[in-house]
Amino acid sequence: MLSRLAFGLLLSLHVLLVLSSTTNSSKSPFPPASPSLPSLLNDPSWALGVRLYKALRSDSSSVNTLFSPLLLASSLGALAESSVGKTADQIQDLLKTPSKAKRKVGDVLSVALKSFVEANGTSFQMHTSSSVFTKQAPALSHSFTKQSQSRFRLQHQTLGKGDFKADLKQLHDWAKAVLSEKKGAPLEAEIKAKAGAMILANALHFKGLWERKLSEESTDHRTFLGKKYTKVIMMHRAGLYHFHEDIDNMVQVLEAPLWGGKASLILLMPFHVENLARLDNLLTLELLSKWLESTVVTSVAVSLPKANITSTLSLQVGAVLLAV
């Protein structure tokens, strides 16, 4: 069985990370065969990721933002299993998928998260953690903390009785420790947690390792369209990749493998230079699934911007997603 896990990245081209449970010999000159995989329509992390991406993009002031639908969905899944009544219904609604999956959402997310963690050090290097912070709230049950840690790697932290600045510092210190002193983007939004508040936090440092490196020697500066045209360092490579062209929608889909075949990078690109508004409107989980299943091995010349991206995202997930 092969699973695909998503990352979302808001740039001038759509970027997704795909994680596979199969391996590919680095000796093979060809990318692994396009997988016959369980439909993305059954995966709550992909469903949540696309919905959250589209919600964020509906804000015209949105900037480059990196987020992990799997970490977020897993944290919500842990809360869902211990919630009742209206709260449980709201969380389950956030994790709903277009299809009626036979497996429980919590089981799907727990297995996917385990695969992701076990792949660390193969196709990518990462530091990650998830935690639920509570402030002057009733003690969480032992069964919840034990199960959320074992199934979803969700830890529990208690915020002190200080003001929002003290809370923000505690969150920063936690993230800094998780990321092993890796430099991260500061939290710009104020977090004003009242007594009884609960905050879900995910921290991630991710570095993909190319299966076939893009040439560092042949880099050059080229014009790239973000919010505006700017000069960026571009890396280049020609080779065999899984590739698909959707002629009707004028979209190119490219899958670039990472080292060892445990993961790959998916790029969604318009045919012509344009902003992402049209592609944003097109994007659905159903269409994304169709694109990925339609890729075939093709000789392609690839040029990608060289970038190191840090970002933070602070939001009320339910309010954002339920508004779209």
Automatic annotation (TrEMBL):
SUPFAM superfamilies: Serpins
Domain (Serpin): residue spans on this chain: 50-324
Sorted UniProt keywords: Signal
SMART domains: SERPIN
Domain of life: Eukaryota
Signal peptide: 1-20
InterPro entries hit by this protein: Serpin_dom (IPR023796), Serpin_fam (IPR000215), Serpin_sf (IPR036186), Serpin_sf_1 (IPR042178), Serpin_sf_2 (IPR042185)
Family: Belongs to the serpin family.
Name of the protein this chain belongs to: Serpin domain-containing protein
